Every structure is written in structure tokens, then in C-alpha cells.
Amino acid sequence: MCQLKCHVNKDPEHIEVHICFQYKCYRDCDRINDNCVENHTCKKQYFEECELCPKIVAKTRSCGHHFKQFVCSKNVEEIECDRSCKRKLICGHKCPSKYCEPCGSCPFPKKKMSSCSHMVEVKCSEEPTPSKCSGKCPKLLPYTLILTNAKRLALQTARSWCMGTH
User: Fold this and answer.
1) 71 and 57, same structural domain?
2) Residue 69 and residue 90 in one domain
3) By Cβ atoms counted within 10 A, which residue in 34, 59, 119, 161 is the most buried?
4) Cβ 40 vs Cβ 32: under 8 Å
5) What is the CA radius of gyration of the chain?
6) Number of folded domains in the chain?
7) Last residue of a domain, one of 35, 56, 76
8) Are 128 and 142 within one domain?
9) In this structure, is the dihedral angle defined by the CA atoms of residues 50, 56, 62 and 63, taken in order, positive or negative?
10) Higher pLDDT pick, 34 / 165
11) What is the per-residue pLDDT across 21-80, written as a single tens digit (0 to 9) for each?
12) Domain limits at 51?
């Protein structure tokens, strides 16, 4: 309760102080700063409006990114986390995502052996299938043509149209 005699009978609890400015209480404010999560008290006088909490504190984002000096009244989740991820993917490559993002699958290119016996460059997390192969097929057709996958697909499509199996 305010000890000043200027308003002892009218609003001694300072309920109306920021609504009605007919008097000014010069007592040090003991209210909590606006948007304060750590209960820091306002450093103004009671008749003045409290501000957003200006105290510098340590905060941690939900992703685990830790900030040593951060304004108490600010939401740490609103700050864009641009720190690179330091985790390793299952394949051993370094994760290319941001620290606050999930790692996901490996996007780095890697040469792998396809079931058609050709080396195929695919994403590290992908399987090397013959459909991703651009090498010449070693299989001989009745008329001994060596075909690329694209030509083989065109020939298979043409045969299915001719046989009515499309």
C-alpha cells in the first residue's frame, strides 16, 4: 500500500494509477515489467507506465539453440535460427540443415552400383535403380542393337501399343 498521503483515501492500491492521472505517485514501482518471464520489477516510478522488460538474460530455443544475452521480454522463438546443424547423418555426412530444423535424408550425391551393373550418381539416401541409369544397356536384342534406357523405354512403349497391352 502506498505510504504517500496525497491519495491515501483514493486508490491507495494504485489500481487506477494508469487510468486516471489526477495525481502522481512518486513511489518506486514494484510491478512486474511487461512481457517479463522472470518476474523482473519495473525500475520506474509508480505513476509511469511500465515498459517491456529490458533485462538481459540467457534463453534457449525449443531446438536447443542457446542465447547467452537476450532481452527478457522478447520471444526467443521469433528469432530466426541461422546456425548450421552440427549433427551427422546416418550415412556419415554432415547435416546441411539449420540447427533448428530436422535433419531429414542425405541430399549429397554419391556414385553407387545399380542392379544393371552400371555406376549411377544418385542422392546418398536414394537407391540406384536402372531407371536412373544413363549407360548403354549390355543386353542384346534379337537384332543386336545396343540401346540406352531412353531408347529401350520408347521401344517397350511402341511394342505395348502394337500388342494392344497399353
Assistant:
1) yes
2) no
3) 59
4) yes
5) 35
6) 3
7) 76
8) no
9) positive
10) 34
11) 456 777 888 888 888 888 898 888 888 888 889 988 998 887 777 888 889 988 888 877
12) 1-76
DSSP of 3-63, one letter per residue? --GGGSSS-TT-SSTTT--SS---SBP-SBPBT-SS-PBP-SBTTSPP-B---EEEEE-TT
Identify any residues that bridge with 119 across adjacent strands, giving them in sequence order. 113
Residue with cell string 534406357: 149
Mean pLDDT of 87-110: 87
100 plus 50 within the same structural domain:
no
The amino acid that residue 57 corresponds to is V
pLDDT on residue 163: 46
> Exposure string (b/e) for 69-98, b if CB count within 10 Å is 16 or more?
ebbbbbebeeeebeeebeeebeeeeebeee
Do 95 and 149 fall within a single domain? Answer: no
The amino acid present at 127, given as its one-letter code, is: E
Q: Are residues 16 and 27 in the same domain?
A: yes
Section 144-162 average pLDDT = 58
